[in-house]
Amino acid sequence: MIDRRTLLLAGTAACAQGPSQEIRKEVFLKAPGKGTAVMAFAYYTRAKGGTMISIEQRWTRSDTIDIAYYRASTDYGRTWSAPVPRATGEKRPEGILRRHLRGGWIHPQSGKYIEFWTEGLLPTDNPLEGMRQWAVHYSIDGDEKRQIVQKGHTAASPLPGVTIGRNSFMLGDNTCLPLALRDGTILLPVQITPVNPDGTLYNPAGAYTYHDAAVLRGRLRGNAIEWELASRIAGDPQRTTRGLVEPTLAV
Fold first, then answer.
1. Neighbouring residues of 113: CB distance < 8 A, sequence distance ≥ 6
2. pLDDT, tens only, 73-111
């Protein structure tokens, strides 16, 4: 899969070198073989210069990343380092710990590189178990890995209306990218699985999944972020069978 931003970056870099450079399309990363899908994305890691990171994900079944590979570039993605594997599944006594990597973002006011991912312990490794297990994690400039937890809450109940094991909050696909307001406040779109009063997952149409959209507000505090649930928006089940899934933001 060719990430549109990669093509745009390649075109921008070519234009910067002068009119003699040709803008062209090329395959970013090929699938290793039949039956394996590749999703790959590239992100800048600094506010200036050509330092980038590429995250390659390999899939052989829906909603499960078998393994990921990281590559680095210092020349705007023209050349890349050798791939370094990153585990996306780990066996635990309680099940399989799964990670869905969602890439990085540069906080414009501080210049810090913040990486986000969704993580959860799946008892039988069924992706739908994530609807009760997923939580969003982050790290800043490769420092300590942290779960998003609103102040006054716990990792087990990280946000108002979210209790891991009962329901979850997660990043959707790569549409769920953060942005910063002028004062440096971070806004991160996420999705939350709603529940019925009896604790069952709310899914009125019996669709694959059902979600509410939500926005988290974050403020940098050194090498950590102070988070709070800013808003949560529910869809009308008469108009949507999946709720509001994979939200994105714009100023």
1. 45, 46, 104, 105, 106, 107, 140, 141, 142
2. 999 999 999 999 999 999 999 999 999 999 999 999 999
Q: CB under 8 Å to 123, separation ≥6 — which residues?
A: 94, 95, 129
Per the CB < 8 A criterion, the answer to whether 14 and 21 are in contact is yes
Ramachandran sector of residue 76 (left: φ over 0; alpha: ψ -120 to 50; beta: rest) = left
pLDDT band of 19, cuts 50, 70, 90: low
Is the pTM higher than 0.85? The answer reads yes
What region does 74 belong to: left with phi over 0, alpha with psi -120 to 50, or beta?
A: alpha
Tell me the sheet residues that pair with 137: 117, 147
Report d(CA 77, CA 70) in Å as an integer: 13
Task: Say if residues 232 and 192 touch (Cβ distance below 8 Å).
Answer: yes
Confirm if 68 and 102 have CB atoms less than 8 A apart.
Answer: no
Residue at token pair 């799946």? 122
CA dihedral of residues 187, 193, 195, 199 (deg, nearest 10): -120
Taking residues 225-234, report their average pLDDT.
97
Q: For residue 4, what is the enclosing H or E element? A: helix 4-16
77: alpha, beta or left, given left = phi > 0 and alpha = psi -120 to 50? Answer: left
Residue tagged 């949560």 (tokens): 232
Contact 150, 156 (CB under 8 A): no
Please choose, from the candidates 249, 241, 245, the residue with its C-alpha nearest in 3D space to the C-alpha of residue 216.
Answer: 249
Phi, psi of 6 (to 5 degrees): -65, -45
